[in-house]
Structure formats: structure tokens, C-alpha cells
Amino acid sequence: MSNQSQNLFERAQKVMPGGVNSPVRAFKSVGLTPRFIDRACGNKIYDAEGREYLDYVGSWGPMILGHADPKVIEAVQKRVEKGLSFGACTEAEVELAELITSNIDHIEMIRMVNSGTEAVMSALRLARGYSKKNKIIKFEGCYHGHSDAMLVKAGSGAMTFGDPDSAGVTKGAAEDTLLARYNDLTSVEALMRENKDDVACVIVEATAANMGVVPAAAGFLAGLRKLCDQYGALLIFDEVITGFRLAFGGAAEYFGVKPDLVTYGKIIGGGMPVGAYGGSREIMEHVSPVGSVYQAGTLSGNPIAMTAGIEALKQLLEKPEIYTQLNEMGAYLADGLREACGFTVNNIGSLTCMFYTKEPVSDYDSACKSDTAGFSHVFRELLAAGIYVAPSQYEAMFLNTAFSKEDLDFTIETYRKILTQ
Ligand SMILES: Cc1ncc(COP(=O)(O)O)c(C=O)c1O
Asked: Ligand 1 pocket: which residues have CB below 6 Å?
């Protein structure tokens, strides 16, 4: 173990809850001291003692071009010299918004915020304000950030209908959140029928990536579209992970299903804190100051963050072959892991996840059958071998353009050794 990481973690625990600013970073579920990261480049990260790891976390999704992409870094450095934040309009926000609206058909207007959580929270308020209805349907095992109404069966937690997963979330805050089963249209239809005239929206990870990776089954998203139209509810795709990753137009483009609203985070900021929500002009014009749905932010549309996002998205647009390359690598990794380990491996595009079960995983209940103790053992051995995956079973392995076939082969062989020794 890195002594430097140990020393830093001891200092951190004295001044920050659990020593971290986001819980999963604490390595608690795998019983280790977290590695403190000093720097990163391409698909490698380096800890405080200078040890190198092959990084499958990629900052939890944003680094689709690899860490410290030269164009993104250069653009940010240039921009920084002009000042960090003005709390006023800048050209960069217009440019990022134009880049998105001119390349994604279902987004005519967009509002920038600072995180995926904020994007979802705001999109839900907009859906309620627009529809004048109260209830929200979400899916068991889908995570949509940590706003109160979304902390219900958010990837794990209490199993009871409508009960919050977190202390401090009132029953009232969660009682308008209805839970359906992922990949199960019957469960959605039943809720729509029971709550007729009061469902403002259905929010879904159009490929779930917070209960492990669970792709939408054939017809599931199209079925949701149909049900939403039938019952007058808005369909929200939470594309915080899938946006600009499965395709430039995210899961909506990948699956060919058009949502009413989309939420973004991660890749949109090129590694800086950005979230966004967008949709048709007709719906988005309900947002303040044109409309009556209030939402604001001191640092929203921050010029440095916008610059990083613009440079990242421009590269994805200029080189669409990136997606073919990433998707091929994803399939190669998944096939290799499946063959080497004999466990269920779910994959879509550049998102892959091994479940420590041999049963198919298509929803929250089947994801929960994975042997998490088995995962902890593998995690420790991977880290010792220089492979950094998320310290939780229920996360994706994120690929980026810096990965090579050799990296994937090394990873597959390391898994094989760990699981067969
Ligand atoms: C699908 C999804 N939605 C929302 C969020 C929340 O985003 P953030 O952590 O930027 O608040 C996440 C975070 O991982 C996510 O995966």
C-alpha cells in the first residue's frame, strides 16, 4: 500500500466525512485505503507515490478522449488567462449550446448547470412545471444523482416502495416518486394506469450503468415512448453517462428513440464540472427567465468549463470513427472477459461490466445476485497488478480512445489469472 496515500487518507478523515468528497471514492466496500491520484495521462493514472495504473474509471465517465487530452488542456490554458468566472454571458456558452443543438435533432434548446445531479433535479422540475402533474416514474437500480426525490432505489438501498435510501430525505420528498422495474414495460403501464392524469414524466437511464451495466432490452425504450405519449407524460433520458458516449447523440441516437428531455453530465464538460438539460424549444421555453420554472446558478456556463466541453465535443464530432473504435474495443474486452472468467459480462459500446454470477442480468433484482465478496477479492488483486477499476461491483468499466488491444489483452489475462489461481 502507498504510505503517502495512507498518510493523506489519515489527514483527510480528520477534516472530511470518510476522508472524501464523494462516498464511493472511499474504497469502503472493498476494505482498502483509497489511492490518492496525483496526475493522469491517456489511459493511465499515477498515485501519490508515482505508481502507474491502467484506468478503467476515467473520472467515472468524462474522459472519453483519455486523460489530459492535449487539445483540451491547451484550450483551457489559453482561456484561463482571461479570467476564471464572470457570472455574465460569454461566447463559450453559446458555442457549446450551438454545437449540441445543431448536431442532436431532439435538442433545440439547452441550459447549462454544474453537475448531473443538478441537471436531473432541474429537468424534473421542468417536467412538473410544464405538465402541471406531480408524479415521477423512475426505475429500480437507476441512479440520477442525489436530489431528494431521486434517492429511492438509486442503485441499491431499501426495497420498500417509495421509501428513501438516505437519512434526511423525508417521506414527502419521495412519495411522488414511483418505482418501476427496468426492462419491464408492464410495471410502467400499471403505474401509469393507477396514477392516471398525474404522471409528469418517466426518467430512465437509457442504458443503466449504475447497477452495473444493464442495456435497455429490445423494444423497451420505444415502449416507454409509446406509454408516455398515451398517458401524456414526458420521457426523460438521463444521458449523464451515455450522452456523447454511445454515440454523439447518446442512447437516443443509438436506440433511435426520441425523448422529450435529456440530461447530460460528465463528457459534456470534457473533465470540468458541467451538467445540462435540454429538449424542444416548446418545453425549454418554460424555463426562467422566459418561463415560470425557476432555475439558476452562479457558476453555470463557466467559461473554463465550457471551453473544455467544446474542445472535447469538437473532437468527437470531427472523428466519428472514435465510436466505431470504442465499440469494437468494448466488444473485444467483454468477449475476452466472458471467455476468461465464465461469468456474465454485460456490454454496450464502451461500457462493460462483469457480474459475479452466471445468470443473465437484465434488471435490479438480477444485478443483486452478483457475489460482491467475489468482486472485492478481484478488485484487490487487480489493483496490485496495476489495473484500476471502480471500487464497486455496480459500476461500469469505461473505455477511452487511449486504450490499445495490448491493454485489453493484459486486462483479460490478469482477470483470468486472478479467477483461476
Ligand atoms: C446516470 C446518472 N445520472 C446522474 C448522475 C449524477 O451526476 P453528478 O455526479 O455529476 O451529480 C450520475 C452520476 O454518476 C449518473 O450516472
From this structure: 60, 115-117, 120, 143-145, 205, 210, 238, 240-241, 265, 275
